[in-house]
Amino acid sequence: MAYDKFDILTSTAVPLPIENVDTDQIIPARFLKATERVGFGDNLFRDWRYNQDNTLKEDFVLNQDKFSGKILVGGKNFGSGSSREHAAWAVYDYGFRCVVSSFFADIFRGNCLNIGVLPVQVSAEFLQKIFDATEADPTTELEVNLKEQKITLLSTGESESFDINDYKKNNMLNGFDDIDYLLNIKKDIETFAESTPL
Amino acid sequence: MSATKTLFDKVWDSHVVHKIQDGPDVLFIDRHMVHEVTSPVAFLGIKNRSIPVMHPEKTFATADHNTPTINQHLPVADPLSANQLKMLEENANEYGISYWGLGHAKNGIVHVVGPEYGITQPGATIVCGDSHTSTHGAFGAIAFGIGTSEVEMVLATQCIMQPKPKRMRININGKMSKGVTPKDVALFIISQLTTSGATGYFVEYAGEIFRDMSMEGRMTVCNLSIEMGARGGMIAPDEKTFEYVKGREFTPKGADWDKAMAYWETLYTDEDAIFDKELTFDGSLIEPMITYGTNPGMGMGISNDIPMANDVQGGATTYQKSLKYMDFNEGDSMMGKPIDFVFLGSCTNGRIEDFRAFASIVKGRKKADNVTAWLVPGSHKVETAIKEEGILDILIESGFELREPGCSACLAMNDDKVPAGKLAVSTSNRNFEGRQGPGSRTLLASPLVAAAAAVTGKVTDPRELMEEMVAG
Asked: Which intervals hold domain Aconitase/3-isopropylmalate dehydratase large subunit alpha/beta/alpha (chain B) (predicted)?
């Protein structure tokens, strides 16, 4: 489905300095039973946010009032595990529009790009600077500029460039959708289908 | 024209419909499998666009993630699960897709039934909204998991858009030692590479150890490719592959078989083909494996001690968080730790060979009183074989019960949840926090290790219980 355009995002960030955050943590399997894409944000990081009696785990970052914003910053290998797009939906539905890490799992990265959440991969050093800055001062803002492929820590002006292919970049800047692209080359696909051996 | 190609390149390149400059390839998909959990929003998407499924004959639906594993003849009690199952049936009927729902003779886990009925074929491109789609790579197919937006894409256009992954080859020569199974080989590889060591790559497994494996064993290995971050893994098809595929319901017949074989026989990596990364291990050094942490890379030989935080790659904080969750300490031995649950099943180890291996250990022994065991076949076909081969009699004699097919406690979407704090030895694929139920603790292992734990009530080296036998 079509999604919001992404241009420049300036926001405070929520730091989650844990490595290998898997999609079972982002959204546990028992919350995958919906048949429409609604309400997944309520269960984002469910078992890290809530005790089993549904009381809040006060020390978890999403439960600390001082941290908020549209940018989630996670440790290395963010989004590993299951292909569930629900993980990206939960991140989006909670209010994040960008996830920053020093390394992303493939499927999670692709899922984010397909729904309009920008995955920004930075160096381990820059990631640490972001963690340090946001933890020292939660009002610290980051600027993510998609057109220039640049992320800046506004408190110090330090910045780093990030990769994204031109096709996906254009999609995100304009809110374009892959299926529209594919439907435009439907004739080519049909011709190809006739020649496949299997 | 390029002279030499890898197996992966041959299959990928022959499926590229269209290349986008500085963007993904448009890849044609030969087989698309759907299940109840990741498909409803995709069907809703094409409904909202008012477009049909482009190739319903290339799409197959089965219910597995959400299904109960007892009393499948009764209505599904959980209303949300029942609704998802109903949606899948309605969508399959509306769009003319083969549907093997609950109670259907061909029902089972999507990655178990695909090969069983010949939907899985060498040289095919196969996708499903499930990361363990990599299983089908055992046949020399390019098979990988996709998200729901991509499920919608495939329903609508029979294509997906993917940047071409890099190529990695993992070579393992030597024989599997006593008590070592394909699961141990895979857990060994992941422990060496970590859970992100193959991210961005598509892996080819090569060497004697994989050549010697049965198709079931190869499926177990390819299934776990995603756990080291790889999009998928594949093994070049050989006589064993063709023999397995021949004569199955959806396999080509007659002249079509000959045509398919002409293609399949080209599916190997050319001698001089270049990989972006190549790794080699000595298979004879692999032991029965067990995990001790909260990702599949945190595994070791069963007789080893849990590594010290300073000796592992990655952050000590994350490592210690993981051990704290498991309630283990650095330097602990795993052997002898009392366990509460055993789960035999899943798309990783829910095939007939896995039940044969499990039975070989429990035969003539009794289930330990402190253990709850869930033995869940991957499909009705596996269930039937368990009965016909006399394995069920062995299991019952030893105090076990057999449940009905499904994903079950692998991801605990149904009622098969390991309670908080309980320790489970599981033949499935993920030991993430809460994966088998909120607060549950999982040790990933082979069916032999699971069986040894089931009869002793603690973590036990299966080699101690083995007589003259060859592991499956």
From this structure: 9-457
Element at B281 (helix H, strand E): strand B277-282
d(CA B413, CA A93): 22
Task: Using alpha carbons, list the distances in angstroms from residue B299 to B288, B333, B381, B440.
Answer: 10, 13, 32, 18
Chain A nearest CA to B30, separation (Å): 7
Report the alpha-carbon distance of residue B439 to residue B443 in Å, rounded. Answer: 13
Q: Rg for chain B (alpha carbons), in Å?
A: 21
- Burial call A104-134: b when 16+ CB within 10 Å, e when fewer: bbbbbbbbbbbbbbbbbbbeeebbebbbebb
Mutation to test the B interface, candidates A178, A186, A187, most B Cβ within 10 Å: A178
Helices (H), B180-297: 182-193, 208-211, 215-223, 239-245, 254-264
- Residue A17, classed as helix, strand or coil, is coil
Query: From CA B333, how far away is CA B450, in angstroms rounded?
Result: 17
Residue B50's contacts (CB-CB under 8 Å, 6 or more residues apart) are none
- Closest by alpha carbon to B352, among B412, B425, B402? B402
Prediction pTM value: 0.97
> Does an H or E element contain B17, and which?
strand B16-19
Q: Which residues, 6+ apart, have CB-to-CB distance to B467 below 8 Å?
A: none
Domains of chain B: 7-277 (3.30.499.10), 291-469 (3.30.499.10)
Q: Which of residues 53-112 of B touch A (CB under 8 A)?
A: 54-55, 65-66, 78, 80-81, 83-84, 87
Chain A CA closest to residue B320: A18
Angle CA B13–A191–A169, to nearest 5:
60
pLDDT of B3: 75
CA distance A140 to chain B (A): 24
**pLDDT digits over B355-390, tens only?**
999 999 999 999 999 999 999 999 999 999 999 999
- At A2 the pLDDT is 57
Q: Are B214 and B126 in contact (CB under 8 A)?
A: no
B159 is in an annotated binding site: no
How does DSSP assign B76-110, residue by residue?
A: PSSHHHHHHHHHHHHHHHHHT-EEE-TT-TT-B-H
Q: Does domain A8-195 have CATH number 3.20.19.10?
A: yes
DSSP state of B351: S
The DSSP symbol for B227 reads G
Low-confidence ranges of chain A (pLDDT < 50): none
